Every structure is written in C-alpha cells, then in structure tokens.
Amino acid sequence: MLGPQKEEMMEELELTPTQAKEAIRFYFDRMPHLPILLCGPSGIGKTDITRQVASENHWECLDIRLAGMLPEDLRGYPKAETWTDVAARSSLGIQGAKRPQIEFVLIDKLARVFETEGPGILDFEELNRAHPDTHQPIFQLIGDRVMDGREMGAQWRIIGSINPEDDSNYIVNAMDMAFSRRWLRIRVKPDAQSWLEYAQKASYHPLVLEYLKTNPSMLYKTVSDRLTLMPAVWERVSKLLRSFKNLKEITTEGLVPIQLALGVSTGLEVLEMASKILCASIDPMDVIRNYASDQALRKAVLEKAEAGLMSELAQLADAVSLSMEEWNINIVQFALDLPNDTCQMLISRLRSEAVDLSDPKMELALAKLYIKIGPFEMEEAV
Q: Residue 39 carries which DSSP code?
C-alpha cells in the first residue's frame, strides 16, 4: 500500500520540458497574471524552459536568483532624504512631502518590472532556497502585483522555480500554504527526446547529441554520491568539446577534462565514441574549415558517395550543419559533392539563413548548389 506522500505525488501531473512549455504558453495566453511555479531537480532545465518561452514570444526575461537573498535585497535599500533635498525640490516647484522621506532603491533588474509595461517574464529562481522572510515581498507581487506601493507593468508575467521538497538530496526552506497555493505548480520530469530536440536547435556539440541518442538514460542519472549527470552538466560538456579544434584533439587531449565533468566511466564512453567516429568518418570541423582546398578530404567524401555510404554521409552532413556558424565556400562545396538526400538539414538551413555573396567564388558555388537541389528546392531556398 502506498504511503500518503507517494499518493500525493501521483496526483501531481508530471510534464516533460516540451509539455511544460506548452502548458505555460496556454496559461499565459489566457491568464497572463497567473504565477507559475516550476518544480524539478537541479539542472533539469527549468531556467531554459523559462528562457525559451520568453525568446519564442520575443519577451524580456529577468531572472533573479533568490538563494542567499534577504527581503531588503528585493524591496531595496533605504535612502533617506535630507532637508537640503526637500529645499531643492521646493525651489524647483516639484510637488512632494515637506519633510525628508525614505525611499527604497531597487536592484536594477527588479526595477524594470515597475518602470516598464513589458512584455516580459520575471523569473524567481531557487524560491525555496531563499530565506523565508524573502517570500513576503514576492507574496505581494503574485497576489496584488504590487510591492511597497509600486505596481508591476501589465504585460509582465511571473515564473518561479523550486527544487523538490520531497527529495532528501536538497536542503530547502518550507513555503507555507498561503504562499504556495497562489502558484500554479508544474512538476517537470527529465525527457531525453524533448532535450535532444532543444539541444539540436541550440547547436550542442554533435558528440553530446550522438552519445545521448544512443544512451538516453544518461541524460539525468546519478553516477556517484557526489556526481549527477543532468542537462546542465551536458551543456557544460558541450562547451568543453567546442573548445577543442577537432575530434582528433578530443581523443588525444580530452580524456581527463571529460572525465572530470562526467565521471570516469561515462567520460571514457564518450571518448571511445569520439574515437570510433574519428576512425569511421570525417571530422565535420575539417569540412567547415578546409573542404574546398583539401583535395584528399574531397576525395574521401566522393569515395563514400560512390560506395553508397549514405547513412554515414548524412550523419556527417548533420554534424556539419550543427557545427557551422555561417555559410562559407567550404560548406557550399561540400553540399555540392553530396547526394541531395543526405544533406536535408544543410538545405533546410540554406532556406532560412542569409549568405554573404561578396566573394564571386561563393556566388558561383551557391548558384551551382541552387541548380543542384532543383527548381522546387531552389524556390523554397530563395
């Protein structure tokens, strides 16, 4: 028989990050002043969910990390007027009190929600790691959209995030019922597919994407008492891998740095995958940097095409698309040498991105590519 706490958890719907974004959009469209509270383990992507919602709607996103904050950090610090200030105000004909007053100077981020109409999201992070007294000014904001006489802009929305209260891995402060009931709570659970879709759009390193496609359970997994793999860790690893020049440098110099980030076993698995990719295929960064001038590299690609290794070429084309920052002559020449059905992601990027045509060679190569992908594809690309 399940205990009361377990039954209560089962009554709370858990959403993947993608589903959580859809739910937030639904409520913010219909009830924009309803405060939403995201609950989930550290590093699962709660901050990214908020930022993606803001970005997709072209809103500002102001995140305030509450851990360690005191109420005065939110309300502002008192600034007392002097009799000189009162006299100056009077001499300038400015209406106001005839005795010195005390005003509160807000932190810059929070001031924006009172000084502008929005639209935007005010994101209170680590809400249950803040001092309980800090909840009181937030209570005013989520209940009446005012704080100490200041009123929030009409188009500002509020999101908060907390770590699970029912997980012994977290030391958190209790939130009383009067405070917590004013939020719409959304429990977020790890989901490899949702994260991979986001990570691909965000151009995470292809090695991270390939490893987690093969091992989706490793997206969020405790590997030791002191190390838990999570989306935030994989983001850090992606940045680490981007710091290497190519796959060869990763395999020769990356073992210890990767193991420090991922643990001994997982780090070794990632490095072994890099070694297999290096042995079996071509480094996408070599394509991006050298393809047009490296005859040996072009020959290797053409030989793979003649041998019918379409799956391998498609993976290489996808890796190039994920790794490239902008179109250049190397990538255009590479796309020209590929069979059309292996470079759909590259063609998709060509449809949606501007290309610098100041170089006549680039202009000529791009014209050939338009002819190669055919009238229908060319019409969409233009």
A: E
This prediction has a pTM of: 0.63
- What is the enclosing helix (H) or strand (E) of 143? helix 135-144
- Give pLDDT tens digits for 160-173: 999 887 766 667 77
Phi then psi for residue 150, to 5 deg, are -90, 140
For the chain, which domains are there? 4-75+105-188 (3.40.50.300), 192-280 (no CATH), 284-381 (no CATH)
Instruction: Give the 3-state DSSP-derived string for 111-135, with helices as H, strands as E and coil as C.
Output: HHHHHCCCCEEEEEECHHHCCHHHH
What single-letter amino acid sits at 323?
A: S
6: phi then psi, degrees, rounded to nearest 5: -65, -45
Tokens for 183, please give them: 């939020």
DSSP β-ladder status, 227-229 and 221-224:
antiparallel
pLDDT at 342 over 70: yes
Contacting residues for 153 by C-beta, under 8 A, at least 6 apart: 113, 114, 115, 116, 117, 118, 120
